[in-house]
Amino acid sequence: MRFDVITLFPEMLRVLTDCGITRRAHEGGLWQLATWNPREFTSDAHRTVDDRPFGGGPGMVMLAEPLAQAVEAAQAAQRAAGVQRPRVLAFAASGLPLTDAKVRRWAGEGGGAVLVCGRYEGIDQRFLDEYVDEEVSIGDFVLSGGEVAALALIDAVVRHLPGALKEPSAADESFADGLLDAPQYTRPEVWRGRSVPEVLLSGHHAQIAAWRRRQALVRTAQRRPELLQTARASGRIGPAEESWLDAAAASGEVKK
Ligand code: ADE
Asked: Which of 16, 64, 83, 147 has its CA 20 to 30 A from that of 70?
């Protein structure tokens, strides 16, 4: 899979090719990265990439033309690499939420994507209308630019490319069933007076699986009740599991 990232700070993307799972997958040829700086596509002496917003207001807005030329160069590079129609995404706090379902779909489709990282107050809407398939947000908070969002998206997609992980990750599987992950423990068995839950030392696989499932349900109820509702609506929570949740609510472990 190929990613072309449009950014004023190409050095911010290097962590992906320099560190961890994404680095190994990059070295193994599972994905490729190129960056394009809109400043290289300006024609004035100051290499201007932004201007004040029409209608007034604070901050600056990214100019359409340097972004358009950078995206066209990226699209041409994708075509040369065999990707006919790469998806074009732009990052913004006002975008549609990035979800596990989208990440898995994009990883499954492979091919390529052009990722546009905004800075300042935003990007001229006419560029977005002309070139961008979807605006993406990674959460309800405001970043200084799209680069950190691009890192999150590429990292999340790459770990789903076949061969990227040495073994399947419990955290990924857990999200696929719509619940948060159960807690994990490793050695020592007692750390600063805190013991590992007995059942995990029992070697009893069925009991361990049941304990983890209950932990995942209770955690999801505590932290992300809306995810639990979605899991219920799609029939992924059985009657025995509903009784665990009722008991957890009765004991005050989960708020009703
Ligand atoms: N740019 C600024 N804030 C953002 C967010 N939350 N997600 C994606 N891109 C952004």
From this structure: 16
